[in-house]
Amino acid sequence: MYPIELANPKITGKWEDFFKVLSDETRLRILMLLNQRELCVCEICQILDLPQPKVSRHLAKMRDLDIVRGKKEDQWVFYYLNIADPLFKGIIQQMAENSQHHPLVCKDMEQLAEKESSGTMCARIKDKIGENS
Questions:
Q1: What architecture is domain 9-132?
Q2: For this protein, what is any one GO molecular function term (predicted)?
Q3: What is the DSSP letter of 67?
Q4: 39, 84, 100, 107: most buried, per Cβ within 10 A?
Q5: Residue 7 gets which letter from DSSP?
Q6: What's the rounded Cα separation, in Å, for the pair 128 and 34?
């Protein structure tokens, strides 16, 4: 048995919800992307090749469960992981470390790397600050 840090009872009581999130392929793919970096909805849509309403619905479900959060910068909302429970963090980490076994997640990671290297990511405030310096 793996030793488990004391988990927040408020969050740990939501195991069923957490595993329901992981059981949906689209949400799983989004989580794996957000585990790499924060992303806006349009970036997620482009990488997953899915329509914006579908991605937004999945993000809303995860936001309602406090698994992801969004921060507004100009006209964009950038989403990031917000997983406080050590057990859930460990599960996400293990999944990320074994993502090479999931073909769609591998494809998504390649798409993300391509967007980053091609400079087609949405503008972030910190990027704008760097340009003005």
A1: Orthogonal Bundle (1.10)
A2: DNA binding
A3: S
A4: 39
A5: P
A6: 22
| Domains in the chain: boundaries | 9-132
Give how far the C-alpha of residue 91 lies from the chain's centroid of Cα atoms, to the nearest Å: 14
Dihedral sign for Cα atoms in the order 94, 105, 109, 76:
negative
98-120 confidence digits (pLDDT tens):
998 999 999 999 999 999 999 99
Q: What is the pLDDT of residues 58-92, one digit of tens each?
A: 999 999 999 999 999 888 899 999 998 899 999 99
Sorted by sequence, the CB contacts under 8 Å of residue 85 that are 6+ apart come out as 7, 8, 11, 12, 18
Q: Burial level of 67, CB count in 10 A (0-12/13-18/19+)?
A: buried
